[in-house]
Specification:
- This protein is mainly alpha-helical.
- Helices cover about 50% and strands about 5% of the residues.
- It is built from 16 helices and five strands.
- The strands form two sheets. Strands 3-4-5 form a three-stranded mixed β-sheet, covered by helices on one side. It has a two-stranded parallel ribbon with strand order 1-2.
- Helix 6 packs across helix 11, helix 6 packs across helix 12 and helix 15 packs across helix 16.
- The protein is globular, with a radius of gyration of 22 Å.
Length: about 375
């Protein structure tokens, strides 16, 4: 509520906006949300903090802060607006209208690989700099930030720090989410099934590297609009180098975690767009990626080693994958994640082929067969 605060930035996980994956509706029955509807309750959700801060400013005649979204979601500013106003309607519909009409929600695209902090990172920082940092943030050298220039109460001179300010951030969002984030998912499941621990190790395997680059070129690139100032071929080359960076030591397990919050938001919309715009679109690699996720959720890799499934929807995913022997499309029948894709043979045909290959020959052999085809 401090008038000196003019921007509140958000970096929220893909599942943190509390929306139903299929309908897009705000989940009003979330217990944390319901608890905040009791007058006088201290907030525990981001929506509660934003609401209370804006409410105090409104009541004191202080202009609202700008809410700047910096997360891995397409149209993240619009998503933040939708979530906050839906929450506000539960508490005060009139104030929800004020938020929608008055508060600004610029979108952004932030591109930097930031692996999970490890104990070794903490030891390295302590040994190198003499600093006992409980949570150092380790990141690659590459960084890119595109930001909608919509700050009515002012902003820092972001352009002096290399930020690309624009009136339309969507082409940058699509480029990053589909080429980087979706390609991370394309790598994660075959690599996990093949027994790889680190991303750079997986990228040293020509079968996986070829699959990832083929996914970028054939499945993703036709879905993108021109990106001002960007050479997509050069960006893809950079991604391959970044994924192969030994020093980052990003783990395959991290990329494979919470997939149910990622594939439905990043990949499924792209698949549907491709099929709608081009009935003959080649989405075989996308289908193989989903099949590899389904195979991973069976809980073992190609050598029979157990795999931990780190996902909030774990029970649903594992139960569906367990039905594969009787129903190869059981995983795709999870409508909350895939919508009606199970009814489209243009997707189910390559999906069933990939899943059968995964069961009979393993992940790497499946990738080789796909490349040969």
């Amino acid at each position: 509520a401090d008038p000196a605060i003019r921007i509140v930035s958000l970096t929220i996980t893909e599942g943190g906006y509390n929306f139903d994956q299929v309908t897009g509706d705000f989940l009003t029955d979330n217990p944390a949300v319901q608890a905040e509807l009791v007058p006088g309750t201290r907030p525990t959700t981001i929506f509660g903090y934003l609401y209370d801060g804006l409410r105090r400013r409104h009541d004191q005649g202080v202009p609202p802060f700008t809410i700047m979204s910096c997360d891995n979601i397409l149209h993240n500013g619009a998503v933040a607006r939708k979530a906050l106003t839906a929450y506000a309607k539960l508490r005060d519909p009139a104030f929800a209208t004020w938020i929608a009409d008055t508060v600004h929600f610029p979108s952004s695209m932030v591109d930097r690989i930031t692996p999970q902090t490890t104990d070794q990172d903490r030891r390295d920082i302590a040994g190198r700099y003499g600093i006992d940092d409980g949570w150092p943030v380790v990141a690659e050298a590459f960084i890119q930030w595109a930001l909608t220039d919509d700050f009515p109460t002012g902003r820092p001179a972001y352009e002096h720090a290399g930020v690309h300010l624009t009136n339309d951030v969507i082409p940058y969002e699509l480029m990053k989410l589909r080429l980087l984030n979706c390609s991370h998912q394309a790598l994660a499941y075959p690599a996990r099934l093949a027994g790889y621990e680190f991303v750079h190790e997986a990228m040293a395997d020509p079968d996986i590297a070829g699959f990832v680059r083929g996914f970028m070129d054939i499945d993703v690139t036709p879905s993108l609009t021109p990106v001002p100032g960007e050479d997509l071929t050069a960006y893809k080359d950079t991604l391959v180098a970044r994924f192969s960076n030994v020093a980052v030591r990003d783990t395959v397990e991290r990329l494979a975690a919470e997939t149910s919050d990622r594939i439905p938001k990043w990949l499924v919309p792209m698949i549907k767009e491709r099929l709608a715009s081009d009935p003959a679109a080649d989405i075989r690699r996308s289908a193989a990626m989903v099949a590899a996720w389904a195979r991973e959720c069976e809980g073992t890799d190609d050598t029979g080693r157990p795999l931990a499934i780190d996902d909030r929807a774990r029970d649903e995913l594992v139960a569906a994958a367990a039905r594969h022997p009787d129903d190869p499309l059981a995983f795709l029948r999870l409508e909350q994640f895939f919508g009606d894709l199970v009814a489209d043979p243009r997707f189910t045909t390559p999906y069933r082929w990939a899943l059968d290959q995964l069961h009979t020959t393993g992940a790497l052999a499946m990738l080789r067969a796909l490349a040969a085809a």
